[in-house]
Design goal:
alpha/beta; Lyase 2-enoyl-coa Hydratase, Chain  A, domain 2; 2-enoyl-CoA Hydratase, Chain A, domain 1; four-stranded mixed sheet; six-stranded mixed sheet; about 260 residues; globular
Length: about 260
């Protein structure tokens, strides 16, 4: 698929992919076309064997959420927002959570509405200190979507999650880091370099183990301790047969850096 609303760069050497939301004139807000392009890009990232993914935005914003002009509100016919969410935003969050590789959000500017929760749906979130996170839904009479009602309370606790959702107030990147909502706040000029350094490092790590860590952590938020213990045992049984496990053990015994291949 030719991309008009995103850009995708694949580095075969580092095995790092960079997906850039590329509608800077509209603050990288979502359209149905952008969703389709992102789905295609994620397929390509998998097919090309990438081992880490960075998601960022072009221009001065990360993502301003849904582009309301894409909903044809002026037609007098109210769109079915449930269908829009189920067919696009929900699938996006599910794809990111299930990707068998680390996903890093590099939040270069304002992340509002679905854009804020897209950043939280990634595995690690870095943000420029100039960035802001805004749960803007209440300002147009909606509920947080794109996983916001699930992600926010687990990141910052119910009191802060409700405060952000009910007021729609902007949260600075520094405060988001202090609250544990994101991994790290960095200087704007250093953001992409830090994100790429992190992605390049993670791409050298045991990719199957990273996928299993994602699976177990997400499952653990919604199940009992006993079920988590069972899942850990199943995952360890599988990983214990992997080439990367043997390489890690041998490297440890031989006192050398491991050379993981993702297998």
């Amino acid at each position: 698929m030719p991309y008009t609303e995103i850009a995708l760069e694949l580095d075969a050497g580092s095995q790092v992919a960079v997906l850039t939301l590329n509608r800077p004139e509209r603050l990288n807000s979502f359209t149905r076309q952008m969703h389709a392009e992102i789905r295609s890009a994620l397929d390509t990232v998998n097919q090309e064997g990438m081992r880490a993914l960075v998601i960022t935005g072009a221009g001065r914003a990360f993502c301003a959420g849904q582009d309301l002009s894409d909903l044809n509100l002026g037609s007098g016919i109210s769109p079915d927002l449930g269908d829009l969410i189920a067919e696009n935003f929900n699938l996006l969050v599910q794809r990111l959570q299930a990707l068998p590789l680390p996903v890093i959000a590099a939040v270069n500017g304002t992340a509002a509405g679905a854009g804020a929760n897209l950043a939280l749906a990634c595995d690690l979130t870095l943000a420029a200190r100039s960035a802001k996170f805004i749960q803007a839904f209440v300002k147009i009479g909606l509920v947080p979507d794109t996983g916001g009602t699930w992600l926010l309370p687990r990141r910052v606790g119910m009191a802060r999650a409700l405060g952000l959702a009910l007021t729609g107030d902007a949260l600075s990147a520094d405060q988001a880091e202090a609250w544990g909502m994101i991994w790290r706040s960095v200087e704007p000029a250093a953001l992409l370099d830090e994100a790429m350094q992190l992605a390049t490092h993670l791409a050298t790590q045991p990719t199957r183990a990273i996928a299993a860590i994602k699976q177990a952590m997400h499952a653990g938020t919604a199940q009992t301790l006993d079920r988590s213990l069972d899942l850990e045992a199943r995952l360890q049984r599988d990983l214990g047969q992997s080439s990367d496990y043997l390489e890690g053990v041998n490297a440890f015994l031989e006192k050398r850096p491991p050379l993981f291949t993702g297998r």
